[in-house]
Amino acid sequence: MRVMMGVIAAGLIVAGCGDKDAQRAEADAGAVGFVPPSVTSRLDFGASMERRFRTLDRNADDRITKDELPSPNARIKAFDRNKDGVITEVEWSEGTLRWFDRMDLNHDGTVTSEERAEARKREGR
Ligand SMILES: [Ca+2]
Ligand SMILES: [Ca+2]
Predict the structure, then answer these.
(1) Whole-angstrom distance, CA of residue 124 vs CA of residue 41
(2) 26: pLDDT confidence band, cut at 50, 70 and 90?
(3) Where does the record place the EF-hand domain (predicted)?
(4) Which ligand is located closest to the Cα atom of residue 83?
C-alpha cells in the first residue's frame, strides 16, 4: 500500500512539472513576441494565434475587449463579426483562419514568407 502511494505521489509530481514547463514555454513565447516562421502550416498558425489570444486576453475571460487590444487594429477589429466590441474565442479563431486563407495564395495549406509579404503589400502595410 505504501509503495502504491509512493508511485501515485511520484506520478503527480511528474505531471505537475510538465504543466509548469508548458506554462514557462508559453510565457517565453509571450516575452519574445509573436515571431512567425518562414513557412507556416494552417495548424501551426492556428496554434500560434491561440497563444496570441491567451496573451492578449489578460483577464482570461476568453474574450478580448477593447482595453486588451495593444493598439487600434483594423484587422483584429474585423474579427468582431457581431460588432459588439468584444472578440470571443470563436470569432478570433474564425477570423485568424480566414486571414490565413487569404494569405495562402496557392491554397496549399501553408503560408510562406513570400505569401505573407505579398499579403502585406496587398493590404498596403
Ligand atoms: Ca479578456
Ligand atoms: Ca464579437
Answers:
(1) 24
(2) low
(3) 76-92, 99-115
(4) 2
Report the chain's mean pLDDT, rounded to a whole number. 82
The Cα 46–Cα 52 span in angstroms is 10
Alpha helices in the chain (DSSP H): 2-32, 42-56, 74-78, 89-103, 113-122
Class of domain 34-122: mainly alpha
Tell me the CA–centroid distance for residue 73 and ligand 2, in Å. 15
**pLDDT tens column, 37-86:** 589 999 999 999 999 999 999 999 999 998 998 787 788 889 999 999 99
Please tell me the distance between residue 62's alpha carbon and the centre of ligand 1 in angstroms: 6
The residues whose Cβ lies within 5 A of ligand 2, an ion, are 80, 82, 84, 86, 91
Crossing angle of helices 89-103 and 113-122, rounded to 10°: 100
% pLDDT > 90, the chain:
57
Ligand that comes closest to the CA of residue 84: 2
Quick one: cell of 56?
A: 492578449
